[in-house]
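Allow me, if you will, to draw on your knowledge of protein folds for a short while. I am sending you one protein, given as its amino acid sequence and as whole-number tokens for its backbone shapes. Kindly check, if you would, that the fold set down in the tokens agrees with what the sequence suggests. The record follows directly beneath this note:
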Amino acid sequence: MKKVWIISGLVAASFALGTLIVMGHDIFTPGDASQTPVKPSGLPWQVDALPNGASKVMGLTLGPAGIASTLGDAQKLWGENTQIAIIAAPGEDGLLEAFVDPASAGFITGKIVITAHLDKADIRAMRERAIKAEFMESTTRKYTLTPADLQAAMRAPIVALSFIPQANLDADTIIARFGQPAERVRSNGHLEHFLYPAKGLDLALDTEGKELLQYVAPAEFERLRQPLIKAAASSPSTTSASQP
């Protein structure tokens, strides 16, 4: 299933577009470090590179099976705010996902979507046993798992994490917090992607909507990048620009 579901399926039914302001500044804007005696952890820009192309972000590890955190680990972090279900568009098996609202990433708040790995056969079987199925947005459906399947889902390894911050971002704030991207890809007139392969991060800056931060293990970053590059190359109105 294409990652577009994150924006069209969940954000459309999410929250009013608000900006968190602290002392007159967006909370993503760097402040006086001397005023913060204890360094906060779990912030969106704090990504630790691990061996074997894995990474740790927001308290979760993204990487191969056996190393990656599980949906159970995510629930331990965010508790009852974590909703686990199978999300499927027409003609697709679906994905096992967790939706956290509200979610805290350090002192940053927003919404989190977590995608876990599960074999297609298991996903289909869980859909057939689902307690209920309901439409989320358009024709995308959400399948509520049985208690037994929910317990099995808790053991599924996490393969991707997406964060929708409540605070609004701009290019200067992104670079100040995350550093210079390895590449910037413009999808259209209002959507630009800041790519950080070493962090496994695609940060989509949307001047007409909400920003979206998508994380995968750095070793898997090309599966985020390649669709963007192909889309930009096929559209005469978009460009792709590498940064030094």
